[in-house]
């Protein structure tokens, strides 16, 4: 992607990121998954929910050999815990091949969100309080 920059707009950047992600070989996907940090525990919920989450994340790691990745960009923070638990329950039933495809889709969504965040314009810099300094 770096070789083709600059991109004319965010849409072109995201399209290039999607294309690069779809072109990942199995080894590249494994490397990308290995570099993902463990999911931070979502706020809220009780002890039972957090215990279920810890157990589910450990089982996922044991079964698939990498951190559980899920994009929560479109999910309200109050719903993160329920969304992650539901995703874990569903995805623990996947075969390793099915889960690689789902994890790749989640990585693409995470990359899109990260790129959009990085590409956001910086707020304008205004004058310093107290006027200009000489």
List keywords for this structure.
0% strand, 134 residues, mainly alpha, single chain, UraD-like, 5 helices, flat
What topology emerges from the helices and strands here?
Elements lengths: L9 H13 L3 H10 L11 H18 L15 H12 L4 H24 L15
In whole angstroms, the N-to-C terminal distance is: 43 Å
Largest sheet: none
State the helix count.
Answer: 5
Order of helices and strands: HHHHH
Which fold name fills CATH's third level, the topology? UraD-like
Structural class: mainly alpha
- The total number of structural domains is 1
> Percent helix among the residues?
55-70%
User: What's the rounded overall pLDDT mean?
Assistant: 84
What is the number of E strands?
0
Radius of gyration: 19 Å
Shape: flat
Using the 3D structure, state the CATH architecture: Orthogonal Bundle
Question: How big a fraction of the residues is strand?
Answer: under 5%
CATH class: Mainly Alpha
What is this structure, in a nutshell?
The chain is an all-alpha fold. It contains 5 helices and no strands.
Describe the structure.
The chain has 134 residues and is mostly helical. It has one domain (2-119): Oxo-4-hydroxy-4-carboxy-5-ureidoimidazoline decarboxylase (UraD-like, Orthogonal Bundle). It has five helices and no strands.
């Amino acid at each position: 992607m770096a070789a083709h920059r600059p991109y004319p707009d965010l849409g072109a950047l995201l399209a290039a990121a999607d294309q690069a992600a779809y072109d990942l070989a199995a080894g590249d996907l494994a490397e990308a998954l290995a570099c993902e940090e463990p999911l931070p525990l979502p706020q809220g919920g009780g002890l039972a929910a957090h215990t279920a989450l810890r157990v589910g994340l450990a089982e996922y790691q044991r079964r698939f050999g990498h951190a559980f990745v899920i994009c929560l960009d479109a999910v309200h923070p109050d719903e993160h815990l329920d969304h992650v638990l539901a995703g874990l329950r569903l995805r623990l039933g996947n075969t390793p091949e099915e889960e690689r495809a789902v994890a790749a889709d989640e990585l693409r969504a995470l990359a899109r969100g990260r790129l959009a965040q990085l590409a956001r314009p910086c707020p304008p810099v205004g004058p310093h309080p107290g006027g200009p300094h000489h």
